[in-house]
Structures are given as C-alpha cells and as structure tokens.
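Researcher: Quick one. two chains, 344 residues in total.
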Amino acid sequence: MELFVPFTLATWLIALNHEPANDRVVLLPSADGRAGAVQLSTAKGELLLAQPYAAAEASSDGKLTGSTADGASVQARYGDTLAALPARPVSFTVYYLSGSAEALTAESAGQLDALKAELLRRPVPEIVVVGHTDRVGSQADNDVLSLARAGMVRQRLLDSGVKAQSMEIAGRGERELAVDTADEVAESRNRRVEIIVR
Amino acid sequence: MNIKVIAVAVLLALPAQAEEAAGMIKTAQGKVEVVRGGQRLPAGPGFAVMQADKVQTGAASSVGITLRDNTLLSAGANSSLSLDQYAFNPTTHQGRIDASLKRGTLSVISGKIAKTSPDAVHFRTTAVTLGVRGTEFILEAHGEED
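Model:
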C-alpha cells in the first residue's frame, strides 16, 4: 500500500507538467531611463505594457492576464538568461574641422587608448564606424561626406593597429544631429564620427 | 535599356544582400546550435547569425547575440529562437525584425530599428505577438517541440 503513494504522487506531478503553461512577458526598466513599451496581441485581445516590471501571461488559447513583477522575482526566474546578454555597445566620438573629411580636432586624438582597452574587455569585438555631418550642404552630399569621414577613421584605426572581428563603416549624413540646428547651419558638434564597439 | 541594366543589377545585388549576417553570437554556454537550411551547426562566440536561422540551446545552456542594429538578445536553457526576418539599413536605421520564440526564455534590449521604425519589430510565441517600442523585456514560451 505504501508503495502506491509515491507512485500516485509522481503520476500527478507529471500530469501537472503536461498542463499547457502560459507564455509570459515582463517589461524591464530601461537602462537609458526612457519609457519603452510592448504591445501584446493574441487571438483574443490586446494589452499594452508600458511601466517597468509590468507583466502578462498569455494562455495557449490567447487569454491575456496582466500582473506586476519585481526585480527579485525576475532575477530568480530569468537570472541565467539575463546573464547571457552581450555587453551593451559603447561609442567613442571624434570631431572634425568644418567641411573636412581629414582634419580632426586636437582632443579627439587621445581616445585611441580607451578604445583599445574596450576591445580587450569584449569577446569577439566588432567595430562600426559611423560618420555624421552638420546641415551645411545637401542630404545627398552629406551622406557621401559622412561615409568618407567614417572611411578615414577606419583607416586610421587600422593604421594604429586596432584589431577587431570586423570593422564596418556607415554614413548617417545629417540624420542624427548631436545638436539640433536649422538647415545650412555650420555646427562643429555635429561634424563627428562615432566609433561603436560591440 | 538603362532600366534593364538597373533591373539586372538589382537582381544580382539581392542575393548578396540576403547573405549579409544579421548578427553575431557573443556569449555561449553549454550546448548552442544553429539550424540553417536543414543543417544543425554547433555555434559559439564569433558565429555569424543569418536571417532565417534558428538558434537552439540545450539544458543548462545559454546564448547571447548582438544584431547589426545593436539589438541585444539572450536565450536561456532549452530555448528555440527563430530569426524569421531581419533587415537593417545602417544609413537610415530603417529595417525589420521578426523573431519567434518557440520555447524557453528570451531577454531583449531593443536597438536602432525599434527606435526608428517602432512598428517594424515583432517577437512572437505561439500564443502572443509583441510589438516592441524601444525597450527591454523578457519573454517566456511553452510551445510544442518542433
């Protein structure tokens, strides 16, 4: 008789495991402090998660149930998953003299050591060199100029012995201003190249 | 004539673009495999992840991936993640992410695409679809074995 008790218990546990578990979503606080959001949609409805630790379960038939999580419960359930996240990309910025793809300002030259140190901290580091311009000139011309600036910086990095898994270039033209200006305004803080390490 | 030449050039360019990597595996623990075109490839740090790849982890395993738009992903143990569609334009930052988590756990830190094209980033399980607007979140799925 005693033998049947554990047997029955085990059967029940297995049966429980075969109940379809709900899928779950937890919104995390963003590192940059911006309020993000996730819009959930199922066959049965919609739910917007817009506060840190807002959470929801979705049953296999599409029923959505909102709830709230906290840091400790997230760490307990998802700590191993979160620990596997790659390091966040970091960027170094160098600045250009007006209209030039070649002449760097003096303070920009000293960042190479910091860049090299960052490369050593990462497994399989990639570099993306992204050029930006101010709003002097047409968008098409600035796309060309920003890419040329990125290409120059890439070459300098290669010449300085910087090694990465890959080193791509991109030109954002005048799409991503550091300082907002009207069109055709010369602004030295916008003439820059970002070196992103990821 | 010119249009023909351009059309041919576009057609020739398309497959090359589709071959571009969507991202790279940065962290890996335990058993990590990528299923690509019916083949099961062992994967670790430095492995280039392509659109349409399925990334799978075993017990006590995990994987971390950085996508080209700086989206960060990590999957925990016993997970199956498909990168169904991925496109990113590094000049305009427009693009598209469609990924599905069949089973397991996934954490996401969204990148440039979610910032520029907030309606173009979707993560799915069999039960729920997430539209992502510039944020960090966790997803857990319990779909059928495939």
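Residues 2-18 of chain B form the longest helix (17 residues).
Researcher: Thanks, that's what I needed.
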